[in-house]
Amino acid sequence: SCSSEKVKRVTSPSRGICEWLLTILSLFFIILTFPVSVWFCMKIVREYERAIVFRLGRLLPGRPRGPGLFFFLPCLDTYHKVDRRLKTLEIPFHEVVTKDMVTMEIDAVCYYRMENASLLLTSVANLSSTVQLLVQTTMKRLLAHRSFSEILLERKSIGQEMKVSPCGGGQLWGRSSGSVNHVRLPAELQQSLAVEAEAQRQAKVIAAEGEKAASESLKMAAEILASSPAAVQLHYLHMLQCLSAEKPSTILLPFINGKGVLCNQNKKIVSE
Fold it and tell me: Which residues lie across from 68 on neighbouring strands?
C-alpha cells in the first residue's frame, strides 16, 4: 500500500562506517559500566504510547517501540513518544456554500487517532492544525453537494461520510471522523427567512379567516334556502341558465320524492 511504501522510504536509511563504529563503541562502553549503565538505557512506554527512536538523527528501522521496556543508546539515540489515544478537536466556525448557493457558517467536532506513529512524526509538524484544515476541506467538499435543508436533516449521514471519505495524506498516518455541531446563517439571510416565515403564517391566518367567513355565509344561505322552498327552485333555475350558457353536454336534474319532478305549490314546472 501507499502507507507501507512511505514507511519503507522513511525508515530504511543506509548506515555509514562512522555510525557503525560509534554504535560499537557505545555498546562496549555500556558493557564496561554494567550494571550502572543499564539504568540509563531502559525506558518504559505505556500501553497507549509508542516510542520513535532516532540514531544520529536518522529514524531506526522497524516498528515503533512499546508498550513496555525498550533499549536505546543514551549517547547516540533520542526518542519521542506518540500518544495513540483518541483525541478530540473542535473545528471553529467557517463559511460553507451549499448546493442551492446558501452561504452559512458551521462548526464541527473531529475525533482522530494515530495509526502510523513513525510516519506521523517524520511528516507532520503541527498535528492539530493539519487535522483542522483537513476536516474543513472535507466538509466543504461534502456540503457543496447538499442543499441547506439536507444539511439540517442529515447531520448523522454527513458525519459517516466524513469518516469513510478519503482525506488525502491524512489516511496515511491516522484515522479521523467528524460531525456537524451548529449551523449559523448570516444576519441578512436570517432576516429574509424570518420575513418569509411571517408571510407564510399571515397567509395561513388569512386563509383560515376566509374559510370561516365563507362557512358562515354558506350557513346563512342554507338557512334561507331551507326556510323558503321557492328560493331553492329559483336557485335551481339560475343554475340551469348558467349551464345552458356554457353549452354543457350533460344536465343533471335533482330527484324529489323519487320522481323527476320539481313542484312549486302543486304546479308542475319541470317534468321528465
Answer: 45
Half-sphere exposure of 128 (CA within 13 A, CB side): 7
CA-wise closest residue to 106 among 128, 136, 127, 76 = 136
- pLDDT tens by residue, 152-192: 777 777 777 777 544 444 446 667 677 777 776 666 666 66
Please check whether the domain covering 87-188 is classified as CATH 3.80.10.10.
Answer: no
**Local structure of 103: helix, strand or coil:** strand
Predicted local confidence at residue 217, as pLDDT: 77
Strand pairing class (103-114; 87-97): antiparallel
Indicate the domain borders of the chain.
Answer: 2-83, 87-188
Is-contact 61 11, C-beta < 8 A?
Answer: yes
Backbone angles phi, psi at 145, to 5 degrees: -100, 10
Report the Cα–Cα distance between both ends of the chain, in Å, rounded: 92
The whole-model pTM stands at 0.56
Burial class (CB in 10 A: 0-12, 13-18, 19+), 180: buried
- Please give the torsion angle defined by the CA atoms of residues 79, 80, 86 and 92, in that order, rounded to the nearest 10 degrees: -170
Cell numbers linked to 219: 350557513
Task: Tell me the HSE value of 62 on the side-chain side, using a 13 A CA sphere.
Answer: 11
Helix (H, G, I), strand (E, B) or coil at 34: coil
Q: What are the backbone dihedrals phi and psi of residue 259, each rounded to the nearest 5 degrees, phi first?
A: -120, 150
